[in-house]
């Protein structure tokens, strides 16, 4: 058996968003949760972590201790307030800031998303450390499934991802589907690509008392509650839930007295006007009295939202995994999701929830009603959802990543970008 390298110290690069930010709004979502959850567990395993992120607010301290063993460095690169579309123009600045700040050497570098990946390539070279990269989403996949009116991902990103597919020593993906996409669309080599499923915080997201959760949220205990949780942007398609709600009310007008559709999250990306557009849509559909918008929340407060819901809708156009689906299931709430990206892995179709092929309103109404209005089916799906989610944990993800770093340190397979 091959000897494993010892990993004591790693650099985690996340240019566009920090693990210290509230997920579910702006650019902060699953990637933040991934970086925060795995970093904590690396530290718990005795591995020192430095997270490098762009200073995206004025007056941020240069260095913050997230938890003992995890340091977050705010690297200046351009004006703090910067549109995500302008971030590529600051990659070089970010990369040199990272290389300069991280002089003490690392056993491995893990970059997240293509922007940080470009800095990762530079860091690999400067620090002579192996580079492990996680794309989180891929431009070529995203561009093939754009929501109506959404701008395609730019060529710079496509080329940046292609560069990473050649240069990184390991490419970590969430599912086999993504592994095949990297090999097929980006010509990644089989030995580069490692499938390591993401996790869910099984201490925080636990089944609980639905009635108590509803009381805490000010909802009637006997309400019918479908919910959407996540960044509010066209890609996530929360409008599908609103249309399905209207359809259910048209079919059964008496439901109106006890239906509450929750939309939890904040504006994000190209959908900065989305919360207002959604509110307008609710008015147009005649369901403004039924839909409740709640600001993003974390931890125990978010778990209560999942527990209060009868069903959580994940109608995304594309989704590399869908942590929300796992979290809801861990709380015992079945999920209705589109069968895209990693969602067929995150949700066991017909067992812990249902997968839908498209966004047809009638189909979504049927799916939501089939869970929320059928207590016996819901109860059996709820139990199955808890079992399904328990197959995933951040401890397992962290173990897989540490093995990947050690493996990459033993045998670097990325294309050499060294000039010296
Ligand atoms: N999230 C949160 N508060 C909210 C809404 C979302 O903390 O109000 C978190 C959620 O718990 C999940 C992440 O944001 O861990 C979203 O991850 P997902 O993979 O579902 O979508 P992404 O944002 O990565 O596209």
UniProtKB/TrEMBL annotation:
Question: InterPro entries, from UniProt?
Answer: Glyco_trans_1 (IPR001296), Glyco_trans_4-like_N (IPR028098), Glycosyltransferase_grp1 (IPR050194), Mycothiol_biosynthesis_MshA (IPR017814)
EC number(s) of the enzyme?
2.4.1.250
Q: Determine the domain of life of the protein's source.
A: Bacteria
Record-listed UDP-N-acetyl-alpha-D-glucosamine binding positions: 22-23, 30, 231, 236, 297, 319, 327
Among Pfam families, the record links this protein to:
Glyco_trans_4_4 (PF13579), Glycos_transf_1 (PF00534)
Identify the residues that bind Mg(2+): 306-307, 309, 333
Name the enzyme group at the top EC level: transferase
Query: Which GO biological-process labels does this protein carry?
Result: mycothiol biosynthetic process
Keyword list (alphabetical) reads:
Glycosyltransferase, Magnesium, Metal-binding, Transferase
Q: Which Gene3D superfamilies match?
A: Glycogen Phosphorylase B
Q: Which residues form the Glycosyl transferase family domain?
A: 211-385
Record field: catalytic activity: 1D-myo-inositol 3-phosphate + UDP-N-acetyl-alpha-D-glucosamine = 1D-myo-inositol 2-acetamido-2-deoxy-alpha-D-glucopyranoside 3-phosphate + UDP + H(+)
Q: What does this protein do?
A: Catalyzes the transfer of a N-acetyl-glucosamine moiety to 1D-myo-inositol 3-phosphate to produce 1D-myo-inositol 2-acetamido-2-deoxy-glucopyranoside 3-phosphate in the mycothiol biosynthesis pathway.
PANTHER family per UniProt: SULFOQUINOVOSYL TRANSFERASE SQD2
Family to which the UniProt record says this protein belongs: Belongs to the glycosyltransferase group 1 family. MshA subfamily.
Q: How does it assemble?
A: Homodimer.
Q: Which HAMAP family match?
A: MshA (MF_01695)
Q: What is this protein called?
A: D-inositol-3-phosphate glycosyltransferase
What species was this sequence derived from?
Allokutzneria albata (Kibdelosporangium albatum)
- Where is the organism placed in the taxonomic lineage, from the top? Bacteria, Bacillati, Actinomycetota, Actinomycetes, Pseudonocardiales
């Amino acid at each position: 058996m091959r000897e494993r390298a010892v990993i004591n110290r790693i650099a985690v690069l996340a240019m566009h968003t920090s693990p210290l930010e509230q997920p579910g709004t702006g650019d902060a979502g699953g990637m933040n949760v991934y970086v925060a959850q795995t970093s904590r567990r690396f530290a718990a395993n005795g591995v020192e972590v430095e997270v490098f992120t762009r200073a995206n607010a004025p007056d941020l301290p240069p260095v913050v201790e997230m938890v003992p063993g995890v340091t977050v460095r705010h690297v200046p690169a351009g004006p703090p307030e910067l549109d995500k579309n302008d971030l590529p123009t600051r990659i070089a600045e970010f990369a040199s800031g990272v290389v300069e700040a991280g002089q003490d050497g690392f056993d491995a570098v893990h970059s997240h998303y293509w922007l940080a990946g470009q800095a990762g390539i530079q860091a690999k070279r400067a620090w002579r450390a192996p580079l492990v990269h996680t794309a989180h989403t891929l431009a070529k996949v995203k561009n093939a499934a754009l929501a109506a009116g959404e701008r395609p991902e730019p060529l710079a990103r496509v080329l940046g991802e292609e560069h990473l597919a050649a240069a990184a020593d390991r490419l970590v993906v969430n599912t086999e589907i993504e592994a095949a996409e990297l090999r097929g669309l980006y010509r990644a080599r089989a030995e580069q690509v490692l499938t390591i499923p993401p996790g869910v915080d099984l201490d925080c997201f636990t089944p609980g008392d639905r009635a108590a959760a509803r009381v805490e949220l000010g909802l009637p205990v006997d309400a019918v509650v479908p919910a959407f949780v996540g960044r509010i942007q066209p890609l996530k398609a929360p409008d599908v839930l609103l249309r399905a709600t209207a359809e259910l009310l048209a079919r059964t007008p008496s439901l109106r007295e006890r239906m509450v559709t929750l939309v939890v999250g904040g504006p994000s990306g190209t959908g900065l006007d989305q919360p207002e557009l959604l509110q307008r849509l609710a008015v147009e559909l005649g369901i403004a009295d039924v839909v409740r918008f709640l600001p993003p929340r974390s931890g125990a407060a978010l778990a209560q939202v999942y527990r209060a819901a009868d069903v959580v809708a994940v109608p995304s156009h594309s989704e590399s995994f869908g942590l929300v689906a796992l979290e809801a299931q861990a709380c015992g709430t079945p999920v209705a999701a589109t069968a895209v990206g990693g969602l067929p892995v995150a949700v066991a179709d017909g067992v812990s929830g249902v997968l839908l092929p498209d966004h047809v309103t009638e189909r979504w109404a049927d799916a939501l009603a089939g869970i929320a209005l059928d207590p016996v089916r819901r109860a059996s799906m709820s139990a199955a959802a808890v079992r399904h989610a328990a197959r995933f944990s951040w401890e397992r993800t962290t173990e897989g990543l540490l093995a990947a770093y050690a493996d990459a340190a033993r045998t670097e397979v990325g294309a050499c970008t060294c000039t010296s």
